[in-house]
Each structure stands twice: as C-alpha cells, then as structure tokens.
Amino acid sequence: PRGIFATFMLASMLGSSIAARLLSRNTVKVEAYMQIVFVISSGSLLLPILTNFLISPSTERGTGISFGGCFQLLGFCVFEACVGIFWPSIMKMRSQYIPEEARSTIMNFFRIPLNIFVCIVLYNVNAFPITIMFGMCSIFLFVASLLQRRLSAIGDKPKTEEWTSLRQKNPEDESQDIA
Questions:
Q1: Which of 71, 131, 162, 171 is most deeply buried (CB count within 10 A of its CB)?
Q2: Do 120 and 47 form a contact (C-beta atoms < 8 A)?
C-alpha cells in the first residue's frame, strides 16, 4: 500500500513538472492543453470500469498484482499525473480570469455549493456501486473538457470596444448617468 501511494505521488509530481514546462512556454495556451488533460483524466477513470467488465479477476492468492490490477494502476497513475498538471494550470487561469481584489471572495462563494455537493455524495456513497461512481467522475471530467473548450473560445475572442469602454469608465461618470 505504501508503494502504491508513493507511485501516485511520483505521478503527481511528474504532472506538476510537465505543467511547469508547459506554463513556461508562451506559445502554449493553458486553456488549450487543459482540454486534453480533462479528456485524458476522463478516459483514465474509465479504466476501472472497463477492466471490471473485460478482464476476469484473478482467483489465485498471493501471486502479486494481476494484469487487470496493473492496468488499473496505470490508469490511476495517469489520472494522478493529470491532477499534477491541473493545480498549477488552474492557478494560472484563476490569475487571468478572476481579479485579484475579488479572487478570495469569488472562490469562497463557489466553494460553498461544491462542499455541499461533496458532503451529499460522501453521505450517499454506499448507494451506488463503485463502477457507477467512476462513471460519474469520468462524465464530469468530460463535461469539464467541453466547458474548458468553451472558455478557450471565449478567451480567444478580442475584447470589443464596448467592453473596454465599460471597464475604463469613471465612477463619477456613472453617478452623473444615474442622476
């Protein structure tokens, strides 16, 4: 068990170093490669479901990890590498899209429903088989890749003159417009 945990941490560290290399390049957009990261992580969480249906479990005891177990371990290591890429990349996107003066308030505002959702799922974890849980996680990650694609498309659009003029408007001008 300690060796498996260490392997996951190594995969996460590898993903983090990959993210550092990607973030240091100005030619690669965070929004673009994160789409791929979400799709890969979605596919890696499908591996436990696929091995459950396609590979019969080993009946022999004490022979080590089975072929299906190796396949699942590889999938989880790929997922952990994606997690390692995710955290530095999401911090970069937060700094791009959320203004610093309001970042903590906005992030805390979104943490409340997230934590409620997590508590509800954890309270009802025995209501679903593990394959359903992995399937739901995989679907959520795929939806995240679609939303990331949408964010990339929005980020690529040039800001219109109307948007920039709204951001540069003085508060004194707004009070005169109201009166």
A1: 71
A2: no
**Nearest C-alpha neighbor of 149 from the set 18, 19, 26, 34:** 34
Tell the burial category of 79 from Cβ atoms under 10 Å away from its Cβ (0-12, 13-18, 19+). buried
Q: What is the pLDDT of residues 138-159, one digit of tens each?
A: 999 999 999 999 999 988 877 6
H or E element at residue 53: helix 47-54
Mean pLDDT along residues 28-57: 92
Closest CA to 82 of 48, 36, 47: 36
Burial letters 90-119, b for 16+ CB under 10 A, else e: eebbeeeeeeeeeeeeeeeeeeeeeeeeee
